[in-house]
Structures are given as C-alpha cells and as structure tokens.
C-alpha cells in the first residue's frame, strides 16, 4: 500500500510548483496612523543619509518676497516638496526728506533695499545685516556695500569698526517695531541715528490654499520661520481645528532663538531647530537634505 503523502508536499516525487494563491490585500494594523495624523516614522531620517519609507516631504516656507522664491528653490534642491505660505504682505515706503544727508545707511533686512535705492545716492556706503541683504543692495546698484554676515549685534560692531560719530548721521532703515535695539547700541556709542520705517509688513489673512491643503493631508514635515514677526503672523492666520493641530505638531526650523521663544509661547508641540547662523543657507542646513531612496 502506498504511503500517504504529507499535506502540502508533492507526492510521487513530483517536482512541479504548487499553484500560488493570490496575495491578500494588506490590512492596516490597529496601530496604523490615521491619514490625517502626521507620524514620526513617515518623516525622512536624515542623519546617516537614509530616508524612511513613505516619507512626508512637505515644507512650508513662511517668508515673503523678496527671498521666498529663492528659498523655495533651495528647499526643492534639498529634496523636499516646498509650499509657499508667506506670513506677511510687504510693501515698500517712500521716506520724507531727511534733515541731513547720512554718512551711511544701515539695513536690517533685504525688504528695506527698494526704499534705500529710491531715496539715496547709490554711492552711499551701505551696511547690511547679512549676505543676502548685501547681495540685493548690490543688485539695486549700491557700490559700497558691507555685510555683517550675522545679526543686529554683528551689524552694530561692523558699523562702529568702519565709521565714527564724527563722520555724520547714520540712516537706519527697518520695518515697524524693528531696529530699536540696534539704534540704541549705536547711540550709546555716540552715533546720531535716524531710524526710519522703510516698508510695511502686514500679516497675511491666511496661510494659503496650498499650505492649508498640505496640512489637511498631513503632508507637512517642517515649517520654516525667518523672523519673530512672521512666526506670530503665521500662527495667527492658522485656521482652528485639525489644520492647526497638524501644524503645531510639525518640525519647525527657525532663524534665531527669539523665533523659537515665540513658537514655544504659542504652544508649538513639535521639535524646534534653531539655525546655526541667522541666514538662509543655515536654515536649509538645519532643515537637512532628503537622501534618495535606494
């Protein structure tokens, strides 16, 4: 009598393959994240050059123009999916006549360049807070441009190193409610400072349709903040409910510790990374690059 074969094995020395059953659709487990809830394991793992599976690549850029377009391009070049979400609407202002010609102009933001170019001779010495502001000033035609490559304290140090109070008054161009600390530092050093508002920065009424849709779909890994004012304005423009909760759970990349303080005071729940230097390249470095999937 032939020996019975074991279940699941071919009998009689058969070597042919058993028919394969159609694979069952994979069902999500009980701990699978909701499609609207950002999950940390969907965020790219940047340290060590490896990316997580199904990464969330959306990055919201909250700075206005000028600067928004170039930051969008830099974020995309780093492997992310950028979304424009400007927190401010900026308009340059024309200055009334000055009481005296300044010996130099001091800029705390690239937003002040159009005003400076409209009201000053282009040979006026110009001191800029950073490299991007300096580059915009040169593009506008200024021929004597000096960059502090830092913050307001570095800018004050640069001005005091290259100018003396005897040279004449300094024209400080800035936004509303900005530049007071810089003006105070320079005045304590004996300089006459003419502080003038060079542009209006009004809060945007919304975070923008693309950004809001990305938040609704939980497709935002990080938000970039380039000033305390833009952070406050963007937070105020967030709609309530799930969109706001999703935003506050994302990673934030900020240009200074002051901006981090604004976020924490507003209840930001996600991690906050402060750029090593207050400029756009350092912001992109803090954001990190997405490693291509193998």
Walk me through what this model shows.
- Residues 70-285 form the Tetrapyrrole biosynthesis uroporphyrinogen III synthase domain.
- With 294 residues, the protein is α/β, with parallel strands linked by helices.
- The chain has two domains: 40-87 and 206-287, Rossmann fold, CATH 3.40.50; 90-202, 3-Layer(aba) Sandwich (Rossmann fold), CATH 3.40.50.
- Helix content is 30%, strand content 17%.
- It has ten helices and eleven strands.
- It has helices at residues 68-77, 113-119, 131-139, 152-162, 180-188, 209-216, 228-237, 242-249, 257-265, 280-287; strands at residues 58-61, 81-84, 88-92, 104-107, 126-128, 145-147, 170-175, 193-203, 222-225, 251-254, 272-274.
- The strands form two sheets. It has a six-stranded mixed beta sheet, with helices on both faces. A five-stranded parallel beta sheet has the order 2-1-9-10-11, sandwiched between helices.
- Helix 4 packs parallel to helix 5 and helix 7 runs parallel beside helix 9.
- The protein starts with 57 loop residues before the first strand and ends in a 7-residue tail after the last helix.
- The model is unreliable at 1-52 (pLDDT under 50).
Question: Outline of this structure?
Answer:
The protein is of the alpha/beta class and 294 residues long. Helix content is 30%, strand content 17%. It has ten helices and eleven strands.
